[in-house]
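Much of our argument rests on the idea that a fold can be written as discrete symbols. The record that follows shows the chain in one-letter code together with its fold in token form.
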Amino acid sequence: PIPTIGFTNNENKYLGNTEFIYSKTNLKGTISLKKARCKNHNDSYDLKYRGFNSCIKLIKLIPTIHPKKHKRCKLLAKIHSYTPRNGKYSPEILEKRRELCEEFLHII
């Protein structure tokens, strides 16, 4: 799985102002429009950052206090430490990484 951190808002002007994040991390996110499903709802915009490196940099820049999100952030860093750069996994590392991914996906 590819980790993703997203921010959602009804006003594009708030999400479009990402100079702060770019100046601190050199990351560019993608903004997408989510059309309203109901007549009485407004369209919304999503700003997303994808990938381990992007998420790790954002976690360091914007720490979270929410217990579930905090636990996910710690697990994400652990999973990243079990991801070799060359993509070649030993059986032990692969098994540990799978366990951590399962734990990450089952945080409720």
